[in-house]
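note to self: dont lose this again. the chain is below, predicted strucutre after it. 100 aa total, dont forget to put it in the shared folder this time
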Amino acid sequence: MNSLRLFVLTAACGVLASPIGSVAAPAESSVACSASGLSLVERRVSEEAARGMPTLVSFVNRTQGIYQLRLTDAVDLLDAARARRSQCMSASALSVSVSD
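---
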């Protein structure tokens, strides 16, 4: 009896999840628009920026001799990455709305 319940529950979850999967296309596109094309420096700067401004400043000061990066350069990298992500998200949202 337990295996029958498990089978029915699995089938019901699969049927209920299929409409949700089609609505979740923008979330999948956000994964595609994430940090796929970032260099090592851009990825590390964005990781440190996600932790907060003091952490970013500390990272830039600590690695300035390695990456030859100033704080203004780090901010420019973040702005460019955000602009690319925004452009990608709007393009993917447009393609999702066109396909509907």
